[in-house]
Design brief:
Elements lengths: L12 H20 L1 H5 L4 E2 L10 E2 L7 E3 L4 E3 L2 E3 L1 E6 L7 H13 L4 E5 L2 H4 L16 H10 L2 E5 L30 H19 L9 E5 L19 H16 L6 E5 L20 E6 L9 H7 L11 H7 L5 E7 L19 H13 L2 E7 L33 H15 L6 E7 L8 E8 L5 E7 L7 E4 L1 E3 L6 E3 L6 E4 L3 E10 L2 E6 L2 E8 L2 E8 L3 E8 L4 E5 L7 E4 L3 E8 L3 E6 L3 E7 H5 L1 E2 L16 E3 L3 E8 L2 E8 L3 E6 L6 E4 L2 E3 L2 E2 L5 E5 L16 E4 L15 E3 L17 E2 L10 E7 L5 E7 L6 E5 L2 E6 L7 E7 L11 E7 L15 E8 L5 E5 L22 H4 L13 E2 L10 E10 L6 E11 L6 E7 L2 E6 L8 E4 L9 E10 L7 E13 L23
Parallel strand pairs: 6-7, 6-13, 7-8, 8-9, 9-10, 10-11, 11-12, 12-13, 24-30, 34-36
Antiparallel strand pairs: 1-2, 3-4, 4-5, 14-15, 15-16, 16-21, 17-20, 18-19, 21-22, 22-25, 23-24, 25-28, 26-29, 27-28, 29-30, 31-32, 32-35, 33-34, 34-58, 35-39, 36-37, 38-39, 40-51, 40-52, 41-50, 42-49, 43-48, 43-50, 44-47, 44-49, 45-46, 45-48, 52-57, 53-56, 53-58, 54-55, 54-57
Helix pairs in contact: 3-5, 6-7, 10-11
Length: 1029
């Protein structure tokens, strides 16, 4: 994600007139061009009222089509509400099902994911799509089973705040050119990965009866033009690069539409509507992060201008300029923000929480967007060395599904809209008629009118005219309807917007065989059963609403919520119903076989609409409606039983609306005592989890060992762990100030901590070191075993320098002197910065010269894959890592007892190790996290947390504020022993100690049992580690 945005717009009647003029001009233009279009392969006329807009396909098949309005999959229009996950940030395939079931439960029709070149291609001769989470085929199998379409975004570059933007470490030396162009060295490097990825994905496309429907080429690569994009001067290296990537995808079986995502509205790249230059994709996309992509708002002001909370951006005119014959599509829209080093503890959900979801996602619909992918829906964890320097371990992203897999108000608020977009089929074929305060009776409130071109169904998206305001406002709305012009509500009262809120009010809304003439309450969803049609509406708690049901002849209250104040008024068209909804649910019945459920916000949060098939579009006649549980993951019907699976956080009631023949509820494969209400719903009581069954061990029995023997004069560096650092030339564009070249990537080491040993003879006065390791990195220096100094690091510095005095050190006369530099590495930078070297940029001996240098990193570097299951990012170069002390099965019986709470008395590195059992019962989903704390007296300490061989936390309390580190089941063994390790690096001579506690984040009774067979994910220690001492 390249975070570049620009203009914020103010709306009003004048702009509405301008936009309507533009819209008319564009319609006229494309009608005149229709003859030309009709002759283009993959373009056909539409036999309906929208014939001025061509229906596209890619010329390979018609499984996926698209036009000015929306995507069609297998001939059916669909609103794409999609959410991003990164499988490599949750390296447990069994947990992927949990995440995807939650995305489906939120009403989404799709999910998306980035690939990770470096994860799958650890060295130039190895591709891995088999070991553990490297095997992505379960994602497609789960998607098919759950019922979600899939957008695949393989790279080769993805950004994603991941190390080098997912480029492999071996690519960052400069040997492959400047990258992201048509340099043959770079092309030869990415071709095996992209070919293999494409071939694998080709088996899971919608053209093959599976669920992949879009395939992205590169990522935010807005490089099509030289200079001003409106001059349309092609960039030949960029177009050749895109052409090569597209050809590789096609040659390896990809036959779904290819997409691209512009990083901002300035670059205007890769749309066939905008130009016929090379490199164009089938469908254009735009990414946007209007409320800052980072918790550090200062990162946004240079590109977005001064940050104003809840200020939206205008997209409609951009899409009309760049891609008017295509659906308005956002491959990335802001789902949250990442938390940088130094960011607030726990992230920054305040301005990007539930209110953000309510306002901004509806705003996108007002812009006529019918396909958007939230980045992120589930962020996960940048475990190991997956993080780019801009972030620490957590990639929670303040996403709707939290890093610990819990759901919160933002999830529920997003669900309220996603369920609506899945149900509102008419929303997939609308024109944007206008946007103005003239639609409302309150000049503070603006409405945008979207109208279906086939049947006249209308959607009025209402919000503050100045969306940065959160005042309580009331208004009435001027609407056109099949019954003529109306001012709604008609029977008194007004519509309320309270805070940073938006509402989509429908007119002539089609549901099943019925029509809702209008509603001032928002539609949540509806279901069609053999006993009638059930429409679900919602309003914020204690707000009033009014709706008109066409064709209804009589209305009655079937379930009354205290304070609902329901009244019915008949007119020539049907029945008007007014109400005020307190907390809870009201059920109304009408003589035309329509029932209407009215919910307040809190009740709507716990209302679900699972689909009984695996059809991602959620057909209304395949939906059951469920109210009550913490989460409903899915439903099916067999005979007279409705089988529902989901989660409860406590004992609760469940109410189900299902076909008339169903009389029994099965919850998580257990039949529960079921009664039928007077209005036909099924009611039962569900139990909650037994918290007493989850007992966590105390982390109070530790062993300890020195993990920095390399500082000692007696240490022998002649073994396999070390390489001579003797290069006198480098292909890296950044040349070192001194030789030899001391860049770690040159010597096959790329991740985590690195060690340098510089030798010199005789006397010297001191040394000057300039080291680069990424934001928040640090380094420490010893001479002949004596600590000299540390560069502590900061959240703002990628490099640092020290001038070291040897005045108080002991130098050897007869033996060589050894200067040890222990360097942290927080990953490679993003985009062009991926080539910025990691290592020592300058090493000068004051009063002498170094004779030679040696370097050590992860055991065997990337050339030797000792741990293909966890992969190349799992560990770095500390002695503890090289020798496998962090792995299950290592024998620490000879170690001394010692606790991290006792810590170190001076500068150095200790490794602490304990083994603790877990016995989490089946049938529960339990989320666990480690909480780390600095016990002092110094907080100038760097800590790595290891769990069963996975590095799942970087704790730098003097720089960052992350203290809680969730670890998923599968990494943790919920049914046996767990090896927990802490590498504690004290950077000063002050004492440093660390506290650690294992905590429960949540306990749920669930159909997803977090205890499963996962031993294959946790391979143990092997003797071959010993050679890397």
């Amino acid at each position: 994600m390249e975070r570049l945005h620009f203009t914020v717009y103010v709306f009003g009647a004048r702009r509405n007139l301008i936009m309507q003029s533009i819209s008319f001009f564009l319609r006229l233009l494309f009608v005149l061009c229709w003859i030309g279009w009709a002759s283009v392969p993959g373009v056909s006329a539409q036999e309906d009222g929208s014939s001025q807009w061509p229906l596209h396909d890619n010329g390979l098949n018609e499984a996926v089509e698209w036009d000015h309005y929306s995507f069609k999959i297998h001939g059916e229009r669909i609103f794409i509400f999609s959410g991003e996950i990164h499988y490599w940030r949750i390296p447990v395939p069994e947990v992927w099902e949990d995440i995807l079931e939650k995305i489906k439960a939120a009403g989404f029709t799709s999910f998306a994911f980035y690939g990770h070149w470096g994860y799958h291609h650890p060295n130039p001769s190895t591709l891995d799509f088999e070991n553990g989470a490297h095997d992505i085929t379960p994602l497609f199998e789960i998607a098919k089973r759950v019922g979600l379409y899939v957008i695949v975004r393989p790279g080769p570059y993805v950004n994603a705040e991941t190390n080098a933007g997912c480029f492999p470490g071996w690519l960052t030396t400069g040997e492959y050119g400047t990258l992201r162009n048509n340099d043959t060295r770079y092309t030869d490097a990415w071709t095996p990965y992209m070919s293999e990825y494409s071939e694998l994905v080709s088996n899971y496309q919608v053209s093959q009866g599976e669920n992949v429907y879009l395939y992205q080429i590169e990522n935010e690569y807005g490089e099509q033009w030289i200079g001003d994009p409106t001059d349309k001067v092609p960039n030949p290296t960029a177009t050749a690069y895109m052409d090569a990537l597209e050809a590789t995808a096609r040659a390896n079986g990809i036959d779904v539409p290819l997409i691209a995502n512009d990083p901002n509205m300035r670059v205007l790249s890769w749309s066939e509507d905008f130009s016929d230059a090379g490199g164009n994709v089938d469908v254009y996309g735009l990414d946007s992060y209007p409320s800052c992509w980072s918790c550090n708002l200062d990162e946004c002001t240079g590109t977005n201008g001064e940050y104003v909370a809840y200020q939206v951006m205008e997209y409609y005119s951009h899409f009309q300029e760049v891609a008017p014959t295509q659906p308005e599509f956002m491959p990335e829209f802001q789902g949250g923000s990442y938390n940088p080093w130094g960011g607030p503890q726990g992230g920054c959900p305040e301005d990007i929480g539930a209110d953000f979801a309510n306002l901004f996602y509806r705003w996108n619909i007002a812009q006529k967007i019918t396909a958007m992918n939230l980045y992120m829906m589930y962020g996960g964890t940048s475990w190991g060395s997956f993080a780019a320097p801009v972030v620490a371990t957590s990639y929670d992203y303040s996403a709707p599904i939290s890093e610990d897999r819990s759901i919160w108000s933002k999830f529920h608020e997003t669900k309220l809209l996603a369920l609506f977009t899945r149900a509102a089929k008419d929303l997939t074929k609308v024109e944007r008629v206008g946007n103005s305060t003239d639609y409302t009776t309150n000049p503070m409130i603006m409405a945008t009118l979207l109208e279906n071109v086939d049947n006249g169904a209308r959607f009025y998206v209402t919000n503050h005219a100045d969306t940065s305001l959160g005042s309580l406002e009331t208004f009435s709305l001027h609407v056109n309807s099949s019954a003529g012009p109306l001012i709604i509500p008609q029977k008194g009262g007004e519509v309320t917007l309270n805070g940073h809120q938006s509402k989509i009010l429908v007119v002539d809304f089609n549901f099943g065989s019925h029509v809702l003439l209008y509603s001032t309450a928002e539609v949540l969803t509806y279901a069609v059963t053999d006993v009638g049609t059930i429409l679900v509406l919602w309003v914020p708690t204690d707000e009033s609403g009014e709706f008109h049901l066409k064709g209804a002849t009589d209305g009655s209250i079937a379930k009354y919520q205290q304070g609902s104040n329901v009244e019915f008024f008949e007119d020539d068209e049907g029945i008007i119903t007014t109400f005020t909804q307190g907390q809870g649910m009201t059920v109304l019945e009408f003589e035309n076989d329509v029932s209407v459920i009215i919910l307040d916000r809190k009740s709507a949060y716990h209302f679900w609409a699972p689909v009984t098939s695996n059809d991602p579009s959620g057909p209304a006649d395949e939906i059951v409606l469920v109210h009550g549980p913490y989460l409903v993951r899915g439903a099916s019907i067999n005979g007279d039983i409705v089988y529902i699976k989901g989660d409860t956080s406590e004992a609760c009631s469940i109410e189900v609306y299902a076909p008339g023949n169903v009389d029994t509820i099965s919850w998580n494969n257990e039949t529960v005592n079921t009664t039928k209400s007077d209005h036909g719903s099924l009611i039962a009581e569900l139990g909650g989890p037994d918290m007493s069954e989850v007992v966590l061990p105390a982390l109070d029995s530790w062993k300890v060992h020195d993990s920095l023997p390399e500082r000692l004069e007696t240490y022998n560096d002649s073994g396999a762990a070390w390489k001579g650092a003797d290069h006198v030339e480098t292909p890296n564009p950044t040349k070192p100030a001194t030789l030899p070249v001391l860049y770690v990537d040159e010597y096959g080491f790329h991740n985590g901590a690195h060690l340098w040993r510089g030798y010199f003879n005789g006397t010297a006065n001191g040394a000057y070191l300039r080291v680069q390791g990424g934001l928040a990195f640090g380094f420490s220096v010893w001479l002949n075993g004596q600590f000299l100094d540390s560069y502590l690091g900061s959240a703002d510095s990628s490099s640092g320098n020290l001038t070291l005095s040897f005045a108080n050190a002991t130098l050897n006369d007869a033996e060589p002197n050894v200067l040890l530099v222990l360097q942290d590495n927080t990953g490679h930078d993003l985009r062009a910065g991926a080539l910025d070297p990691r290592g020592i940029l300058e090493a000068r001996l004051i009063g002498g010269d170094f004779t030679h240098w040696k370097v050590a990193g992860s055991a065997g570097g990337t050339a030797v894959l000792l741990d293909p299951m966890r992969g190349v990012y799992a560990e770095g170069g500390l002695t503890a890592e090289r020798l496998g002390w962090h792995l299950p099965g290592f024998d620490d019986s000879a170690w001394d007892a010692g606790s991290p709470s006792e810590g170190l008395t001076g500068a150095g590195v200790n490794f602490y190790r304990t083994v603790v059992p877990l016995d989490i019962p089946q049938g529960l989903d339990v989320s666990l996290a480690f909480e780390l704390s600095s016990l002092g007296p110094s907080d100038q300490v760097r800590v790595q947390l290891f769990v069963n061989g996975y590095q799942y936390g970087r704790f730098n309390p003097h720089i960052g504020h992350q203290i809680e580190f969730p670890v998923p089941p599968g990494v943790l063994n919920y049914g046996g022993d767990n090896t927990i390790g802490l590498a504690v690096w004290a950077q000063t001579e002050e004492a440093a100690s660390v506290g650690i506690e294992l905590k429960k984040k949540y306990v749920l009774e669930s159909s997803f049992s977090s205890r499963f067979e996962s031993e294959y994910l946790r391979p143990g220690w092997t003797p071959e580690r010993l050679q890397y001492a």
